[in-house]
Amino acid sequence: MRTIAEYELLEPLPARYHFRARNADGSMVALQVLPAWRRSKEAIARFEREVSLEKAVRHENIAGFIAWGSAMVHDHELVGGPGVGEVHYIARELVPGRTVSDLVRKGPPPLALSISIAIQASRGLGALHAQRVVHRNVRPETLILRPDGVLKLIEFGLVKMLRDASAADNAFHTAVGQVVGHAGYMAPEQLEGAEVDERCDLFALGCVLYELVGGQPPFNAHDLISYFRAVREEEPRPLQELRSEVPVSLDRILARLLRKSPEERYASAAELESDLIESLGDPAV
Asked: N or C: which end of the chain has fewer CB within 10 A?
């Protein structure tokens, strides 16, 4: 039996070093682990940053923080070899349901469901952005739709404090020139390693919504290099060409979300949410 502190590791989750685990009280959690062989001052600081941010943000559309800590373990995978080593962990709400990636794999869901997913994601992002935090990893795999229809945003390993946050948070800023994110959902400025803000998350959400509605990504690419070229030089096909019932209002929302320049996108998640709710009322939906 593999254990970390009071948690029994049951099976790995899709993200590396994430596990479905059972607490001592019998409850199930999602356990993120920082292995002993990956520990460093910088790695521990990033891990503690995740903890502090997740404690500060409580929202229906964000996977709930439960606990965190460190423990000595005798585990070959997590220690990196024989012997005992110290690992750090974060326990979060284990969200039942399907990822948006699972939904898309079975074909585009109904328009109303796709828009509802985007509305809930924008609310979760709005809660993060209110704390001056950018997620930087919004993609179909980090959005889970519960059986009751509630969407949860998960995985906070790439979160970034914005530049105008307090000086105490300066150590958590990613250096300009460093590319952080997931190919296929990164905004042009993110790919270039430039300074980013909330609008890079909205671009990523636009990519997710486009894929939900159109059944394919907005930019055709098979690797980071081809995506870099496509996202800078190409324009996505209008969704109405892929799916005739898509209302003009939704096509306009997507076009604005996927603008090359952040200044031409939505300024906030709240502004996007408002337009999405209005689009949900379109007779075509």
From this structure: N
Average pLDDT over residues 115-141: 94
Q: Give 189: exposed, middle or buried? Use CB within 10 Å, 0-12, 13-18, 19+.
A: middle
**From CA 82, how far away is CA 76, in angstroms rounded?**
6
Q: Which stretches of the chain are assigned E, i.e. beta strand? A: 3-4, 7-12, 18-22, 28-34, 65-73, 85-93, 98-99, 133-134, 143-145, 151-153, 160-161
Range of the domain at 24: 3-93
Domain CATH for 44: 3.30.200.20
Q: Note the pLDDT tens digit of each residue in 206-246.
A: 999 999 999 999 998 777 788 888 888 889 999 989 999 99
Distance (Å, whole) CA 150 – CA 280: 17
| Sheet of 18-22, strands arranged across | 3-4, 7-12, 18-22, 28-34, 85-93, 65-73
